[in-house]
Write a structure and sequence with these properties.
Elements lengths: L1 H20 L8 H28 L15 E11 L2 E10 L17 H12 L4 H12 L5 H8 L3 H8 L6 E16 L2 E13 L5 E8 L5 H13 L4 E7 L5 H8 L4 E4 L1 H9 L4 H15 L4 H15 L4 H9 L1 H4 L7 H7 L3 H14 L8 H16 L9 H12 L1 H9 L1
Parallel strand pairs: 3-6, 6-7
Antiparallel strand pairs: 1-2, 3-4, 4-5
Helix pairs in contact: 1-2, 3-16, 7-8, 9-12, 10-11, 11-12, 15-16
Length: 417
């Protein structure tokens, strides 16, 4: 049963890939589609087989001077095999004495999808192209070029584009947005680009990465494009959006989703405050700020903030005034109970995902282009989200409270689910 499900999944992916390839102006028939698919994998496997036989014989195809054996090449035999992109014909090289036994594609082996699967998996774990080449050589005894590795991993680009444009649910109870900076080559120059990650929590309390957007400078125009993309993919409502003080975001979301509550991340607000505080005072000030963000209600929190600013920490008055300036987006979580507060007051859920991204990219000093970065982040996302199998704790309590605060905006989806 498990094998049948796996084959059905692979078949589905083949169909998706075929539809994308069919858009190529050079593709006019079904046969053209399959030829394009074969071009992705065929040369890789064929190259491995040729390298295997060369190692067996001890001399290159046209290197007769170094031939030290009475054995030689003896043409090819045809073999049909299964790969992750469908069936294909391979030419299995033969030797005249019949002593050569292929290791990459053993005599009775019909499924070779594990080879390319290993390569894509290693890429997703953050290994550099150089490391992948070495690992494939160690595992299979053959050497691949960096260009070939790139071609193999490029196979997932159509899958990424489909993932980035997939339909989304009509409502998300919480949405989190944050960015992480990477170095990317652009027009021959290494520059810093930010990958903005959008994560949603659906009505059943499960997390989902909704999209990854690379490259643009934060602005209301940029965020409006992101939010319109989410709307075009099916989102009709977002109850609460937690963000890291993203430039232009509050203005953009009020245009795209005017009823959404915007919550500024408290952890990021504390970090930004400490940028202007002497190291020796930081621990004490952080402890005092708990009187603000852990206060029982909004009025007491604001009163405690004024007390810190006007009395004990007058020398950091400007730093604390940032809390006043952004109070409208800092204070919304005080209206809710503990279960909702714990979810919305910080973007730590994305911070955790960002740690996975940093782990996957730690061996990369820079990326050759946006696609290379997106491939790495997508594969890291898939690896990380495999473990997202549980809903938020006390979700029934959270849902009950949201139903009271947002009434029909959420209840109509609960009753229809």
């Amino acid at each position: 049963m498990a094998r049948r499900k796996k084959e059905e999944k692979e078949e589905s992916n083949i169909e998706k890939l075929a539809r994308l390839i069919a858009r190529d102006p050079e593709v006019n028939t079904i046969k053209d589609v399959y030829e394009k698919i074969k071009e992705l994998v065929g040369p890789l496997i064929q190259g491995m087989l040729e390298a295997e036989l060369e190692d067996e014989l001890g001399y290159g195809k046209y290197d007769k001077e170094n031939k030290k054996t009475d054995n030689s090449r003896n043409g090819y035999s045809s073999k049909r095999v299964r790969t992750s992109v469908g069936e294909m014909e391979l030419k299995i090289p033969r030797d005249r004495k019949g002593e050569y036994e292929p290791k990459i594609v053993p005599k009775y082996k019909k499924d070779i999808s594990d080879i390319e699967g290993r390569i894509i998996g290693m890429y997703g774990l953050g290994l550099s192209t150089k490391d992948i080449v070495k690992n494939v050589e160690d595992i299979y005894g053959v050497e691949l070029s960096a260009e070939m590795i790139s071609k193999i991993t490029n196979k997932i680009l159509p899958e990424i584009r489909e993932w980035q444009s997939r339909p989304l649910e009509e409502i998300y109870t919480f949405m989190f947005m944050d960015g992480i900076v990477f170095k990317v080559k652009d027009d021959g120059e290494i520059i810093k680009k930010t990958a903005y990650v959008v994560l949603g929590v659906n009505i059943d309390g499960f997390k989902e990465v909704l999209g990854i957007y690379i490259g643009e400078i934060e602005s209301s125009k940029f965020w409006l494009r992101v939010l319109n993309d989410l709307k075009n993919r099916g989102i009709k409502d977002i109850l609460i959006a937690s963000v890291d003080g993203l430039t232009g975001f509050p203005q953009a979301i009020k245009t795209a989703f005017p009823d959404t509550i915007v919550q500024r991340c408290i952890i990021h607000q504390i970090r930004n405050t400490l940028k202007y505080v002497s190291y020796k005072d930081r621990k004490e000030l952080v402890n005092d700020l708990k009187k603000v963000y852990k206060a029982p209600n909004k009025d007491i929190a604001y009163s405690n903030l004024q007390d810190l600013k006007e009395n004990k920490w007058t020398k950091y008055k400007l730093a604390l005034e940032s809390w006043e300036k952004h109070w409208e987006t800092i204070s919304p979580y005080f209206d809710y109970g503990d279960d909702v507060r714990k979810i919305m007051y910080t973007t730590n859920v994305i911070e955790s995902l960002n740690r996975q991204y940093r782990k996957a990219t730690k061996n990369k000093t820079s990326f050759p282009n946006d696609d290379a970065l997106l491939k790495m982040l997508y594969l890291a996302t898939i690896n990380a989200t495999k473990r997202w199998t549980a809903r938020y704790r006390n979700w029934s309590n959270v849902l009950n409270e949201l139903s009271i605060f947002f009434n029909e905006r959420i209840t109509k989806y609960i009753y229809n689910s």
